[in-house]
Amino acid sequence: QVQLVESGGGLVQAGGSLRLSCAASGRAFSGVVMGWFRQAPGKEREFVAGITWSGGRIYYLESLKGRFSISRDNAKNTVYLQMNSLKPEDTAVYYCAAAWSNGVPRYSYEYDYWGQGTQVTVSS
């Protein structure tokens, strides 16, 4: 089992920044791919970003490139999502997820473990 706990969400004004963290515990973490997803009210959960174990492969939702940045610290079993220039449409519950994969999965069903989510609200 892997437990994922997100933190760092909150209320921020448009144009502001937040950094989300996801701490993993439990099963050995080696080789795991980490992803961030988000789900706004009434919408499907969507892929935000993903990163391989080494950090050598990173993918973003195309529309978020340049504003969001994913990184990880394997020594701390933690993955981060830096979100800059936030917009009201970024308002959602943000989830981190873990998958054992050779690539970076971009569909939620490809991930094996999920955190409980953290709310991000961007006011205009």
The total of beta strands comes to 11
Gross geometry: globular
* Percent helix: under 10%
Average pLDDT figure:
95
> Major sheet: size, sense and barrel closure?
7 strands, mixed
Q: How many separate helices?
A: 0
Low-confidence stretches: none
Q: What's the order of the H and E elements?
A: EEEEEEEEEEE
Could you tell me the strand content as a percent range? over 45%
End-to-end Cα distance, whole Å, is 40 Å
Report Rg.
Answer: 13 Å
Which structural class matches the secondary elements?
mainly beta
Jot down its keywords.
7-stranded mixed beta sheet, 0% helix, 11 strands, 124 residues
Provide an overview of this structure.
By secondary structure, the protein is an all-beta fold. Helix content is 0%, strand content 51%. It contains no helices and 11 strands. It has strands at residues 2-7, 10-13, 18-26, 33-39, 46-51, 58-60, 68-73, 78-83, 92-99, 113-114, 118-123. Strands 2, 4, 5, 6, 9, 10 and 11 form a 7-stranded mixed beta sheet that branches. The model has no long low-confidence stretch (mean pLDDT 95).
SSE arrangement:
Elements: E1 2-7, E2 10-13, E3 18-26, E4 33-39, E5 46-51, E6 58-60, E7 68-73, E8 78-83, E9 92-99, E10 113-114, E11 118-123
Parallel strand pairs: 2-11
Antiparallel strand pairs: 1-3, 3-8, 4-5, 4-9, 5-6, 7-8, 9-10, 9-11
